[in-house]
Design goal:
Strand content: 15-25%
Distance between the termini: 41 Å
Number of helices: 7
Largest sheet: 6 strands, mixed
Radius of gyration: 19 Å
Shape: globular
Length: about 280
Amino acid sequence: MAAPAKGAAADAAGAPDLARVPGAEVVVDAVGKTFRRGGRRTVALSGAGLRVRPGELTCLLGPSGCGKSTLLRIIAGALAADQGTVTVGGRPVTGPSPDRGMLFQTPMLFSWLTTRNNIAFGPRAQRAAGLHERDDPELDEETTALLDRVGLGGFGDAFPHELSGGMRHRAAFARALASRPSLLLMDEPFGALDAITRERMHEFLLDIWEQHRITIIFVTHDVEEAILLGDRVAVMGGRPPGIGEVIDIPLGRPRHALDTDTEAFLAVKRRIRAALRR
């Protein structure tokens, strides 16, 4: 099923104003992480530094084992750094927080819940913890609006196994947005999709990002994907692993798959490949 047409989400009747949650600035300062198993010591990340501006879409790019997912988990608060600090919205990261949503390669949906209840799960858990006071009618209205916004208006009562791969990813995206995060962390979320569905998900992601302008950090090992999506690309690698170079993407928006054949796109691609070799 194709992604919703551009602008359709913004026109959804009764759509909650999620843009009222501003994107957060992210500051990574000299972050390092070493894993120890038995007598073995593996440096997964060393001296990583990065500043992500509010509302920016930044890609972490590099080969497997270069520390991309480790850094993302540290920013999420799911993993503690051994050295350095991370702040999100000016607050130190000391553990997980609902203001930081995370999406994985496999959509993390509860198989026993409908699409609607999957999307509402986070806000209901937040309410139970006393983090907000949205009542059931308000949550139902927001959930309905989010279903429409991600093109799943007719699938609120469907279970995950009844959805296609792309639809499950959109449902997971809607669930992340339902908690009103100021930062979305995405760990190769489209890596397992076929080429056509992946292209549609790129368009969907950029459409939603244009509407919400929350901060997004997107992990990928695909150079074209990084250029197509990112405002900037942080090239990772080396020994010990870290961030070698941060490259601005001098291309206008909106961007589409056809842009990958342009000379401007290919010039950026050559520059990033050179940075990866270094």
